[in-house]
Amino acid sequence: MKILITGGAGYIGSHVAKHILKETDFNLTIIDNLSTGFIETIETLKTIRAFEFVNLDLSDWNDLKKLFETHEFNAVIHFAASLIVPESVENPLKYYLNNTSNGTYLIKCCIDHNVNYFIFSSTAAVYGEPKLTTNDKIKETHPTNPINPYGQSKLFIEKILKDTAKAHNGFKYVALRYFNVAGADKGGLIGQSTKNATHLIKVAAQTALGKRDKMYIFGDDYPTPDGTCIRDYIDVDDLALAHIKALKYIPKNESGVFNCGYGKGFSVKEVIQTMKEVSGNDFEVEITDRRKGDPAILVADNTKIVNSMGWSPKYNNLKLICKTALEWERKIK
Ligand SMILES: NC(=O)c1ccc[n+]([C@@H]2O[C@H](COP(=O)([O-])OP(=O)(O)OC[C@H]3O[C@@H](n4cnc5c(N)ncnc54)[C@H](O)[C@@H]3O)[C@@H](O)[C@H]2O)c1
Ligand SMILES: O=c1ccn([C@@H]2O[C@H](COP(=O)(O)OP(=O)(O)O[C@H]3O[C@H](CO)[C@H](O)[C@H](O)[C@H]3O)[C@@H](O)[C@H]2O)c(=O)[nH]1
């Protein structure tokens, strides 16, 4: 297997690359423009085993085409994207260009060069504000109705993949709808280094280590038991394993979309309490207004990926997720 990973210098892509390098003999090429990813991550991955890295911007369609002309890829795993929700509201065209247009051209390259397998990083943001009662989990069949351009830009690619697979015999895709990804490599090799991070667990880890004076809870008046939003936090290595499962699943099965989460939700207050326990630091937390566009509860029904791919998560443990996030945060400047 020859595999192309886009966005492999970033947080999730680098964890998937790590598993491919460690656990398979697949030939790997990573492309990344290092806009939010890090060359240091690529260098660390190279200590596992050799692979090709190309500093390439997906918007350079000519370069992308040349890459496909000179390599015979069997599968593409597509992570490269812009992913800050509020930024997508202020600058939607950046999201439609980078996520939808560049993603579409990447799919065209696959069709033009007989690359048959495509694994796509989608998001729970495609569901928008799910219509559920308190204890319901979201199934893949739940209507999609993104409430921001980021979610919309990703849903477009899901639709383009579906139409393309219908029109081109042999081309198949798996779209993985990630819920809230967190944690880091258990041996401290790689983790989330994103600058100006907004993700709850990373912000809590930074506050626990004194990198921030305090942190904020965005709203405690949601219709949940403690008033704060509930999310399904999935460990980044378990998510990476879902990609390895998808690579094995795709040649013998139909295309499809799959939720990636544990099916268990934690409130913002529960996450912060866990980080306080794990770090031993009772850091300052202030309640402030709701953040725009936050649904109250997002919890995955993961029956489909468990039953059809045999995905069996190993790190379904919020304490461990907080611990590895904290250890990584301690390691980076
Ligand atoms: N982090 C999450 O919680 C989360 C949740 C759901 C979905 N996702 C999706 O997972 C994927 C990876 O997210 P991440 O958290 O690892 O983000 P990240 O920012 O760490 O990684 C994205 C990588 O893509 C690269 N990139 C961006 N635009 C590019 C372009 N035009 N050309 C080449 N490289 C480009 C960046 O430099 C970066 O290395 C994204 O598609 C994102 O939408 C992430
Ligand atoms: O400092 C903070 C950061 C976050 N939160 C709250 O914590 C919850 C989780 O927020 P994150 O920013 O960590 O994650 P989101 O749920 O907003 O979004 C993430 O998960 C989504 C799917 O569930 C999408 O995939 C999206 O791309 C990804 O960023 C939200 O209620 C948010 O309001 C705080 O209270 N304080």
List descriptors.
single chain, 333 residues, alpha/beta, Rossmann fold, seven-stranded parallel β-sheet, three-stranded mixed β-sheet, 11 helices, 14 strands, binds nicotinamide-adenine-dinucleotide, binds galactose-uridine-5'-diphosphate, UDP_G4E, isomerase, Epimerase_deHydtase
According to CATH, the homologous superfamily of the domain at 2-181 and 234-262 is: NAD(P)-binding Rossmann-like Domain
Structure classification:
alpha/beta
**Which molecules are bound in this entry?**
nicotinamide-adenine-dinucleotide, galactose-uridine-5'-diphosphate
pLDDT averaged over residues: 96
Largest sheet: 7 strands, parallel
The N- and C-terminal alpha carbons lie at a distance of 37 Å
User: How many β-strand runs?
Assistant: 14
**Percent in helix:** 25-40%
Indicate the low-confidence ranges by residue numbers: none
Beta-strand residue fraction: 15-25%
